[in-house]
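Module 6 notes. Inverse folding takes a fixed backbone as the condition and produces residue identities as the prediction. Think of it as a translation problem where the source language is geometry and the target language is the twenty amino acids. Below is one complete input and output pair. Work through it position by position during the lab.
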């Protein structure tokens, strides 16, 4: 039985609409979106790396780039759901072991 979610995540709320899902997939699959993401990420990288005076700043830049790639991954996969995990049925305890 499918009970309604009592506290859905933003992604779950987004996926409640089939219109959201289909339009999002069309957008993410478009060449324009891919081009914008590629060049936007390159420009962000260029901006961040333009002035790195020391190692601590370099670490911060690396973490910011990691965050940027994470948000891009989240945006790309917003309309997708993870495949259901297989149910493992165990017969019970092996008392002979």
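Target side of the pair, the amino acids:
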């Amino acid at each position: 039985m499918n009970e309604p979610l009592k506290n859905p995540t933003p992604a779950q709320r987004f996926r409640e609409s089939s219109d959201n899902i289909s339009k999002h997939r069309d957008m993410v699959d478009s060449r324009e979106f891919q081009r914008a993401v590629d060049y936007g990420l390159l420009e962000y990288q260029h901006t961040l790396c333009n002035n790195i005076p020391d190692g601590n700043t370099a670490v911060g830049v690396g973490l910011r780039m990691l965050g940027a790639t994470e948000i891009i991954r989240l945006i790309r996969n917003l309309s997708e759901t993870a495949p259901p995990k297989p149910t493992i049925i165990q017969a019970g305890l092996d008392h002979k072991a």
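Reference fact for the lab report: The radius of gyration is 21 Å.
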